Amino acid sequence: MENGKRAQWGSNFGFIMAAAGSAVGLGNLWKFPYLAGKNGGGVFVLIYLLIVLFIGFTIMLGEMAIGRSTQLSSYNAYRKINKKWSYVGAIGVIAGFIILSFYSVVGGWVLNYLYQTVIGGIPTDTSAYFGSFISDPISPIFWDMVFMIATAIIVFKGIGGGIEKACKFMMPALFVILVIISIRAMTLPGAGAGIAFYLTPDFSKLTAGTIVAALGQVFFSLSLGMGCIITYGSYLGKEENLEKNSIIVPFLDTLVALLAGFAILPAVFAFGFEPGSGPGLMFITLPQVFDKMPLGWIFGTLFFILVLFAALTSSISLLEVTVAYMQDHHKWGRTKAVIVLSLLMFLISIPASLSMGILSNVQILGNNLFDFLVLISDILLPLGGLLMCIFIGYVWGMDKALAEITNNGKFPFKLKGFWTIMIKYIAPLAVIVVFLNALGILKL
Ligand code: PFF
């Protein structure tokens, strides 16, 4: 709330940059390339694209409709429509907490890598360096704190003057840097093998695990299932076209994920590294790639600036979800909410960071705390999405949702039939099937 009246985006472009900023993040630049590397390259990319098209678009539009209709952040939005469903919004607020507390740890790593790249401080043995850095009890927590402070400052400045302004600058800059780096990577001698690996679906690599990984990644990457888009949508005016926005935002997010693969995998192949090296791909493999590349220092610096921008435009959305909840529900002022919540999230992130080092033997269901938080978010987001589909289809009602999307018939809704079938039947069913599968696979 600004001046007692609910804040609004300055323009639809501002909203798109903010929503795409939330979507484009570590999920695209860090997770997507290594998940593709691990899950068979092209076949993962193909499944991912199909899920974005069918489920990603559907849920994004659903969240935007709930947010704009109620003009409230997620918990109160569900509550306003049907009190019994407010717990779905509560799950989202909790998920925001959980995600930001591991997200800021990785955001801190990115800051450290940016700093080290600038001062030339990354040794040749990048694997040993990464291991010793993340297990250190002090340095990663220091960078984590810097990352949280930057996040808090932007959110403190509010919707128009903070989040929108930051995203309108960082998102286009990120895109330009990413295009430069992709061109550099794809023109390296030997890059062809990486491009082929990335683009050729090898169906023998298709397993249930690929589909589970792709579904989780779609939710995480598009910031779906935890009310983030509900919250951002609540600052949207009635004259904006939700259908168009729900196509543009996933399109931009997917474009960046695909480009990230083009920026990273060809270079990995060109210098003879393993694409399936997992989470270390960005922090272990890439610094070696930059080391070997002509003008690698400049490309490395640019790359980590890019990742930092992406991470910040996402972390602010995660913090905003919880801040907006405190404002809407508990009538807290923005300043108090930002200070208390960011501090709390930082405190939770400390054990998450330490779980890479001195707390590594504290195990929950066979995971260290960091991996456990990631696992919980991988469950909560699709669960939130599933409940949202049921909520729209059977509780709020399709007629009300459609009236919101079309602004009572003022806008055409070309994909109305598709969206209706997807949200009522196909999307929830698909998530249930994947869940059941995962339960079997994980033998929980
Ligand atoms: N979409 C972000 C990424 O890809 O890094 C992560 C994220 C942000 C997830 C906001 C969920 C969310 F609500």
What does this molecule look like?
This protein has 444 residues and is mainly α. 76% of the residues lie in helices and 0% in strands. It has 17 helices and no strands. The chain has helices at 12-23, 26-38, 42-70, 74-81, 86-119, 126-134, 139-156, 159-186, 192-199, 208-221, 228-233, 242-270, 285-292, 296-330, 334-354, 369-405, 416-442. Helix 2 (26-38) packs antiparallel against helix 10 (208-221), helix 2 (26-38) packs across helix 12 and helix 5 (86-119) crosses helix 7. Residues 22-23, 25-28, 99, 220-221, 223, 226, 228, 314, 317-318 line the site of 4-fluoro-L-phenylalanine.
Supply the helix-strand structural class.
mainly alpha
In the predicted model, the low-confidence regions spanning at least 5 consecutive residues are none
* Helix content percent band: over 70%
Q: What gyration radius follows from the Cα positions, in whole Å?
A: 21 Å
Shape: globular
N- and C-termini, Cα separation: 43 Å
Main beta sheet: strand number and arrangement? none
Annotation field: number of helices: 17
Overall average residue pLDDT: 92
Strand content: under 5%
Order of helices and strands: HHHHHHHHHHHHHHHHH
- Small-molecule binders: 4-fluoro-L-phenylalanine
- Work out the number of β strands: 0
